[in-house]
Every structure is written in structure tokens, then in C-alpha cells.
Amino acid sequence: MSTEQRYSLSGATMGTRYSAVFYAAESIDQGAQQAELQQAVDRVDRQMSTWQADSDLMRLNAAPPGQWVELPEELLWVLATALQIGEQAGGAFDIGVGALVSAYGFGPQAATEQLPPRPPRARDALELDVPRRAARTHSRISLDLNGIAKGFAVDQLARCLREHGVNNFLVGIDGEMRAAGHKPDGSAWAVALEKPLRGRREVLGALELTDASIATSGDYRHWRERDGTSVSHTMDPHSGAPLLSPLTSVSVICTSCMHADAWATALLVLGVEAGSRVARQQGLSAIFVVREGDALREVLVGF
């Protein structure tokens, strides 16, 4: 009989909460484990937040073009991954949209009446020197990692547990989740998928996860009215404006939650047809949910 006990820990991060459910020896120090999980997500927030003026990312945003800025290794890794996925997605994922995010009121400041011009592409404006642990911009650009940092933070929660010998867990921040191992009875971890409905929460379905991550991007949680029109927090790098699409949500399943997080945004921007094609090319499993009048239609890739 297993001597492992079920633990459930949670805490505040990134304007929401993280959770960690896991099975471990009864002798585990819950207080110490909680503190380490909190430190892991706090470290990501200090490095990558656009809501903290003194974060490492905001130091880079504030630096004059051409000036090298020393950065933590983790932030450089996330920046490099974001650029790579942006390239693979044909520009549908671009961390250079920070000025647009702010102008439409999805950042720390209120929305502005005058909208900025379409920003330069991050791949053109940002240069990384990983061996030197430094980065610089070549033109004024506001980098925003909200489409990838939360997934990376989930991966850090998983890393923290693994370092303490915990191999059976489900960790998450909002809809970004990572599972490892299984429950004591051998069953997989069950994760609910939400219907992409504004103002209420209903279950669309459930997935069983083992050694995998899931992340969802959609237009139904973070949105606001502008000039009588509902606009989503997801920016379309190609148009330089909030995404307008009948595709209302995309969930991506892969090993890394950081990759799942970024790819969910990229596929949402690409749309069902192009997104399905790219998902197959990248070996991703994805669930596309399309709004058709009052009905929802699912398109599955990789299942």
C-alpha cells in the first residue's frame, strides 16, 4: 500500500493564484514546500512582469536602443523561446505588441484615445547575447511576455517539486496546467476544459493528462468595450489591433507549459485552417473552438 499523502498548496501570483496538488511522503514539510513554490513564481514575476516597473523585462523596455542590458538566464531563455516560436508561427506570436496591449487598456495604465502605429516585429528589434546574458533593442519597442511567462511559471512549479523528489503532481496557474505521473490508484490527472463563454463558467469537457501540459488562449476572459465594440486582449501582430475571429479559444497540449502557452496564442491568431496546419507541422495536439452563432464547434488536431 502506498504511504504517500495527498497535498494541496496554493498562493498568489501574477494577479491570480497558482495551485499544486501532489502526492508525497507524509514527512514532507508543507511550510517549506509552500515557501519554495512561492519563491519560484515570485522569481518569474520579478523578471517578466509588465506590471512591475522595476522588473528585468521593464528594465530592458526602458533602456535606450543599442544599450546592452544584463538579464537573468531564465528571462533570456523565455525571450529566445518566444522569438523561436514567433518565427515558426510565421509572426502570429510576437512579444513586441506591448504598446498595443497598453493602448487598448490591458496593461497597468488606462486605455489611450490615440492608438500607436503598428510596432516593429520583436525578431527585428530585439537582439540576444545568451553567452553574455544580455540583450538590447535596435528600436523603441515594448516587449510583453504575458503570452508565455505564465506557462514558464507553471514549468518552474513542476521543477520545484521534482527537485524534492515529488514525481506525481498537477500544478497550474489559471488555465495553464502541467501534470506528471499519476494518482496512487494509477489513474491520470483530470483537467476540465471551459466553454469559451463570457460572464459565466461551464465545462466543455475533460482531458486526462500524464506527463503533459495544457494551456488555453481565448477571447472570453479578458476583454473590454472600445467604441461600442468588444475587443480581446489578444493582439494580432499582422493587423496591429485586437484579434477579431470566430475562433474563440485554442487549447494546446504538449510537454512544456511554456510552449503550450505561447502556441495557444499563436494558433488563436492563425485561425482554424492555418492553425491546424501549423499544429500538425509542429507535432502539437490542439483543440480549436469556433463560435457559430449560438453554437460552438470543436476542431481537434493530434488526437
TrEMBL record:
One MF annotation (Gene Ontology) recorded for this entry: metal ion binding
Domain of life of the organism encoding this protein: Bacteria
Binding site for Mg(2+): G147, D261, T265
Claim: Isomerase is one of the keywords in the record: no
Database matches in Gene3D superfamilies: ApbE-like domains
Co-factor binding details: Magnesium. Can also use manganese.
Name of the molecule in the record: FAD:protein FMN transferase
Pfam families tied to this protein: ApbE (PF02424)
Catalytic activity: L-threonyl-[protein] + FAD = FMN-L-threonyl-[protein] + AMP + H(+)
Organism the protein comes from: Aquipseudomonas alcaligenes (strain ATCC 14909 / DSM 50342 / CCUG 1425 / JCM 20561 / NBRC 14159 / NCIMB 9945 / NCTC 10367 / 1577) (Pseudomonas alcaligenes)
Alphabetical UniProt keywords: FAD, Flavoprotein, Lipoprotein, Magnesium, Metal-binding, Transferase
Cofactor or coenzyme needed: Mg(2+); Mn(2+)
Family designation: Belongs to the ApbE family.
